C-alpha cells in the first residue's frame, strides 16, 4: 500500500472533491494517511477565494519540499500535487515558483489524476491539467465505497455565471453546470446505504440547479423520499435564485433542516450594485421574510464582505442595519481581498487596510453577539440532533443541531449515526450542551 495525504482548504465542495480524489486513487493502491511525513503522494486541494487562502499554499509547499527531500534521501519518492482553485487560477506559475511540485490539476479535471500519475511514473517530469474538459468529470469518477460519517456532502451543481465583481469562482470553477437528477439520486441512495443519514447538497450556486425540468426544489422532494435519509441541507444559495418552489419546500419537507445560508455580502444598494449582485437590500429582506413565513423556526446564516471598493461609512452602516434587522444565527465575514482578473480589483477607490479592519471588527462583534443570543435562545428547547462522532470525554457524543451547532451529550456514544431529540441545557460560545430527551 502507498500512503496518500490530502490537505483540504476552502469550501465544502473542496472537502467533497478531496474525498472523490481519494476514491479515485484507492484502486491504484493509495490508502489515506493523516500526515504528510513519509507519504508517497501529497495532494493540496486549494482555495483561491481570498489572497490569504491562496498564499497558504506556497508556504505549505515550502514545508513539503523538505519532506520530499528527506524521503528521497531514504531512497523513497514523494509525489506532490496541487489541486483545486489555486491550481486552476495559477497553473504553470505554481511549478515555476515551486519546483518540488509534480502535478497541477484543476477542479474540473481531477478525474484524470490516475493517468497523470502514470505518465509521471513512466517518463518523469511534471504534469499539468487545467482545462474544462468536455467529458463529464462525474461520469469518470468511481462510485463511493465509504462515507466519513453520517453527514455526507453531495455536489449537485458547480460553477457560476453570475460574475459578482469581487469573485474568482466563475474563472476557477467555470460556468454553471448541474448534474442529471438520476445521477444525483443514485449517489444519494448509495451514500445512505453506506451509512449517511444527512446529505448536504453542494453547489457554488446550488439553488440555480437546473437539469432538464428538474429544479433544486424538485430534487429535494425526490431525495426526501429516500428511506433512511433523515435530513437534507443545501449550500450555497444566491438570493436571486430563491424561487417560490424552493421556499415552499421549506414549508413542505420536514427533512429539510430549518437553516439557510443565504449570503448577502452588503446591506448597501450602491455596493450591491457595484458588486453586480443584481438585487437590492430590500429584495433580500423580502426573501428572508418569505422563507421565515414558510418555516417560522428557520435560522439564517450569511457571508459579508467589508471594505469593498468605494464602500463609505454610510454603506457600511447600511450593512450593520441589515444585520440588526435580519438577525443571524451564524455568519462569515471577510475583508475585501483583491483577486487577479476580477473587475473590482481594478477599481480606483480601494479602501485602506485600517478602515477594513475597523469595519470587520465592528461587524464581527455584532455577529458574535447575535450568535451568542441565538445559542441562548436554544437553552431549554428540544432539538433533533444527528450524532456524528465520539466527544473528547468517555461516553460523550457530538452531533449537530438543525442549525449546525455542535451539540455535546454525555452517555450518547452508542447513538452515533442516529437522530435523537436532545434538550439543550447550556449554550457555550460555539456549541451547545444537551441531555437526551426522554
Ligand atoms: N474578498 C473577500 N471575500 C470574498 N468572498 C468571495 N470573494 C471575495 C473577495 N474577493 C467571500 C464572499 C463569498 C465567500 C465564499 O467568500 O463573502 O460569499
Ligand atoms: Fe475556494 Fe471558491 Fe474554489 Fe471553493 S470554489 S475552493 S471557496 S475558490
What's the layout of helices and strands?
Blueprint: E1 2-8, H1 12-25, E2 30-32, E3 41-46, H2 51-73, E4 79-83, H3 84-90, H4 92-97, E5 103-105, H5 113-123, E6 127-129, H6 137-140, E7 151-155, E8 157-158, H7 169-172, E9 177-178, H8 181-193, E10 198-202, E11 210-211, E12 214-215, H9 216-224, E13 231-235, H10 244-252, E14 259-261, H11 269-274, H12 281-294, E15 299-306, H13 313-326, E16 330-335, H14 353-378, E17 382-390, E18 397-400, E19 406-409, E20 419-428, E21 431-436
Protein structure class: alpha/beta
CATH topology of the largest domain: pyruvate-formate lyase- activating enzyme
Radius of gyration: 22 Å
Bound molecules: 5'-deoxyadenosine, iron/sulfur cluster
Q: Biggest sheet, strands in spatial order? A: 2-1-3-4-5-6
Classified in CATH, the superfamily of the largest domain is tm_1862 like domain
Describe the sheet with the most strands. Answer: 6 strands, parallel
Q: How many angstroms does the end-to-end distance come to?
A: 47 Å
Number of helices: 14
**Low-confidence region ranges:** none
Average of pLDDT: 96
Strand content: 15-25%
Query: What is the CATH level 1 assignment of the largest domain?
Result: Alpha Beta
Shape: globular
* CATH architecture tag of the largest domain: Alpha-Beta Horseshoe
In total, how many beta strands? Answer: 21
Helix content: 25-40%
Number of domains: 3
Amino acid at each position: 500500500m502507498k500512503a496518500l495525504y490530502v490537505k483540504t482548504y476552502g469550501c465544502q465542495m473542496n472537502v467533497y472533491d478531496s474525498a472523490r480524489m481519494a476514491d479515485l486513487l484507492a484502486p491504484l493502491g493509495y490508502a489515506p494517511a493523516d500526515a504528510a511525513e513519509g507519504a508517497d503522494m501529497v495532494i493540496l486541494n486549494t482555495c483561491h477565494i481570498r489572497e490569504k487562502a491562496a498564499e497558504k499554499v506556497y508556504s505549505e509547499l515550502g514545508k513539503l519540499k523538505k519532506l520530499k527531500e528527506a524521503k528521497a534521501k531514504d531512497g523513497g519518492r514523494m509525489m506532490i500535487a496541487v489541486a483545486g482553485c489555486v491550481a486552476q487560477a495559477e497553473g504553470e506559475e505554481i511549478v515555476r515558483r515551486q519546483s518540488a511540485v509534480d502535478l497541477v490539476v484543476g477542479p474540473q479535471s481531477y478525474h484524470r489524476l490516475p493517468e497523470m500519475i502514470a505518465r509521471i511514473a513512466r517518463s518523469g517530469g511534471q504534469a499539468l491539467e487545467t482545462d474544462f474538459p468536455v467529458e463529464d468529470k462525474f461520469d469518470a469518477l468511481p462510485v463511493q465505497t465509504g462515507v466519513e460519517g453520517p453527514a455526507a456532502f453531495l455536489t449537485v451543481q458547480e460553477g457560476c455565471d453570475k460574475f459578482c465583481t469581487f469573485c474568482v469562482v466563475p474563472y476557477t470553477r467555470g460556468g454553471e453546470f448541474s448534474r442529471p437528477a438520476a445521477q444525483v439520486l443514485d449517489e444519494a441512495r448509495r451514500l445512505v446505504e453506506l451509512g449517511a443519514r444527512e446529505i448536504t447538497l453542494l453547489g457554488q450556486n446550488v439553488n440555480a440547479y437546473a437539469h432538464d425540468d428538474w429544479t433544486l426544489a424538485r430534487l429535494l422532494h425526490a431525495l426526501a423520499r429516500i428511506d433512511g435519509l433523515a435530513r437534507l441541507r443545501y449550500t450555497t444559495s444566491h438570493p436571486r435564485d430563491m424561487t417560490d418552489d424552493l421556499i415552499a419546500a421549506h414549508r413542505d419537507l420536514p427533512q429539510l433542516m430549518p437553516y439557510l445560508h443565504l449570503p448577502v455580502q452588503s446591506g448597501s444598494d450602491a455596493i450591491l450594485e457595484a458588486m453586480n449582485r443584481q438585487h437590492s437590500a430590500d429584495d433580500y429582506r423580502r426573501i428572508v421574510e418569505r422563507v421565515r413565513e414558510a418555516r417560522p423556526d428557520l435560522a439564517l446564516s450569511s457571508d459579508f464582505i467589508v471594505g469593498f471598493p468605494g464602500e463609505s461609512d454610510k454603506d457600511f452602516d447600511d450593512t450593520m442595519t441589515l444585520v440588526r434587522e435580519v438577525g443571524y444565527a451564524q455568519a462569515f465575514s471577510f475583508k475585501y481581498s483583491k483577486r487577479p482578473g476580477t473587475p473590482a480589483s481594478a477599481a480606483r477607490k480601494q479602501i485602506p487596510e485600517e478602515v477594513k479592519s475597523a469595519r470587520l471588527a465592528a461587524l464581527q462583534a455584532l455577529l458574535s453577539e447575535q450568535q451568542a443570543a441565538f445559542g441562548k435562545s436554544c437553552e431549554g428547547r428540544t432539538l433533533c440532533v444527528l450524532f456524528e462522532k465520539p466527544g473528547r470525554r468517555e461516553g460523550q457524543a457530538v452531533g449537530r443541531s438543525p442549525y449546525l451547532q455542535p451539540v455535546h451529550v454525555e452517555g450518547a456514544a452508542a447513538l452515533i449515526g442516529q437522530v435523537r431529540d436532545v434538550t439543550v441545557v447550556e449554550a457555550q460560545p460555539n456549541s451547545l450542551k444537551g441531555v437526551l430527551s426522554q
